Amino acid sequence: MDGWCEDWEDTSRYDGLNQSCNGFLVNDEWLTSLGDMISTDQSSLIWVGGNNDYGVQVEVLANGVAKLYSQPWIEGEPVSALDETGTWQDITVNGVVVRKLTIPQSIISPLSWSEFNPQDGIAYFSEYEGFVRLVWEWQNEEGEEEYIFDSSTAEFILNNYSQPINLDACLAELPDADYEKQVGDTNVYEVERSVPWIEDGEFVDYVWEFKHLGNTFSWLTDVTLVTGMPSWISDYAGELTKTQITFMNDERDVITTEYEYSNDDYYFGNEAEVYVDGVFEGWGFARATLATVIEGEGDMLGVPVEFDTVTNARLGSYAVENEFGDLIVTEGIRTATEEISLETITEAFPYSEFDSVSTFLGKDKVEIAGELMYACKVYSETRFTNADDQPVDTRLNWLVNRGMVKSERNEPSWGAEIKMEAVSLPN
Fold first, then answer.
1. Which residues have CB under 8 Å from 294's CB, separation 6+?
2. Partners of 171 in beta bridges
3. CA of 330: how far to CAs of 175, 278, 311, 341, 411, in Å?
4. Dihedral pair phi/psi, residue 168, rounded to 5°
């Protein structure tokens, strides 16, 4: 994933750290060795956290003590030494020296951002590519971090880090780990959505309901006029999971309904089954190719999982003007009235191909409906590779075994911003 500072107008940080955002500035110089972290006077302070009112700095002393300071953001206000202190020690892992720094959780809990794991107050530092870096970065709200060591060193760090090592382990730690989905189970979300064509792009409130209909369904088996249809249609016939999504306004009046098709390994597509006089006037997409992992198997903590290029095929027709102003219409899977190839359908639509990457960010405490709970945090990016502007859609999801409990989506591919929070989950 891109570094969180990469797109800053001032590129001095990103460029100065060898195309990275992971580093520490002390006395206007980037730390290049663990030895540079050791302070000989109070001027050698390292920023490690903060909130809206103040920042926290640490002074690493040679005797294994880490002194802590509070710095108000108000210009001219003095730095204040805190009563509580931390500790540090060096550990050698596969020939790599890793510095383990621990500070009290009471210092971390009021902070809105911190370099430390909030569950145990630990952060790890080491030298990499000429600079002192965090071996593990705690995620910010954009889900951005960097992963910098080989797998054996990473395993050591993860084993000493109070976070589940992968997404499956995270879900297994949650209170609803024994949940088994049943037909009729329903998740309900309060939604804020902004799209350019409604209320001038202002956020509008909705209620979305997701209902599990079972896992014995087929889809698109009735399509006969489209050649080159994907083999999954027959391979998984009678085995697809079908989910009904009911879109409502904030007064719970139904706006429309869609259906999604998936299984434990793949997402196959969605369809709004709207027919007028037997003619399809709905919408949706079907996967012409499926998402296969090309790097980062296993949803390991902090390790991006990259997927091969996926191709979508529209169910409805697509119209675009050519250079002469003529309207060119390409039929979709459901609207074809004569034989057409799947390739023709996908090639006509500029957002049909995309690459994606997903990263498990750890177990996170999140407030849902006024209550704090733990959930597994996952960040994903989708880049539409055959569009001229190649927009990147992002999602930050908080998951439990009963489904997603919170989501923040920024999807420029269709001009949408969406915020979702669960108000009802199955028992």
1. 306, 307, 308
2. none
3. 49, 19, 16, 11, 25
4. -60, -40
The phi and psi torsions of 199 (rounded to 5 degrees) equal 50, 40
Q: Does residue 27 register a pLDDT over 90?
A: no
What count of residues does the chain have? 427
- Give me the phi and psi of 178, to 5 degrees please: -90, 5
In the block, tokens 């510095």 appear at 99
Encoded tokens for 223: 């399509």
Half-sphere exposure of 120 toward its Cβ, with a 13 Å CA cutoff? 11
Structure token pair of residue 111: 């902070």
DSSP-assigned beta bridge partners for residue 208: 189, 247
DSSP summary character for residue 89: E
Pick left, alpha or beta for residue 176 (phi over 0 → left; psi -120 to 50 → alpha; otherwise beta): alpha
pLDDT in tens, 217-255: 999 999 999 999 999 999 999 999 999 999 999 999 999
Q: Please tell me the distance from the alpha carbon of residue 317 to that of residue 295, in angstroms, as a whole number.
A: 35
Residues 6+ apart with CB under 8 A from 275: 281, 282
**Residue 249: CA count within 13 A, CB half-sphere:** 4
